[in-house]
Design a protein that fits this description.
Elements lengths: L11 H20 L4 H10 L4 H25 L5 E14 L5 E15 L3 E2 L3 E5 L1 H23 L1
Antiparallel strand pairs: 1-2, 2-3, 2-4
Helix pairs in contact: 1-3, 2-3
Organism: Catharus fuscescens
Protein name: COMM domain-containing protein 3
Pfam families: COMM_domain, COMM_HN
Length: 151
């Protein structure tokens, strides 16, 4: 979009904000299964002219089915961690056969989604420092949640 010659005089930051706003409008309309009259009213409230509203609604209507399928594949709720397992991996040599002696942790998160049940596990490798940082952030999140529920 930034390379389009018609848009070269527009500040790239403004252009990115406009793109994000349009994407948000399209996603929210698809999420709420909004009809054309509701979208038109919303865009009129945003002071768009009639011609642009008609173009937007025509394009939205053409792509509405594909958008709903895409949104349906994403799901409605975040993944829920049900279990975690880990193991220590010790790398003795690298690809060039140099001795490295680097320990790392292989962590596997068992996750599920309330919308569609089970999902593939999430696995990652990290160093001890990265794992300690993750544990610290999880403890901070737990404390924040505990404080929020006490209010």
């Amino acid at each position: 979009v930034l390379d389009d010659p018609d848009l070269k005089d527009i500040d790239p930051t403004v252009l990115k904000h406009c793109h994000a706003a349009a994407a948000t409008c399209i996603l929210e309309a698809g999420k709420h299964k909004a009809d054309i009259s509701a979208i038109s009213t919303c865009l009129e409230d945003c002071k768009l002219d009639k011609e642009r509203i008609e173009i937007f609604c025509t394009e939205y209507q053409k792509n509405k089915d594909a958008l709903e399928i895409l949104l349906g594949s994403i799901g409605r709720s975040p993944l829920h961690i049900t279990d975690v397992s880990w193991r220590l991996e010790y790398q003795i040599k690298n690809n060039q056969l140099h001795k490295t002696y680097q320990p790392s942790y292989l962590v596997t998160l068992n996750v599920e989604n309330s919308d569609s049940g089970s999902h593939p596990d999430v696995s990652f490798s990290c160093t001890m420092e990265q794992l300690q940082d993750l544990v610290g952030k999880l403890k901070d999140a737990a404390k924040s949640l505990e404080r929020a529920t006490q209010m």
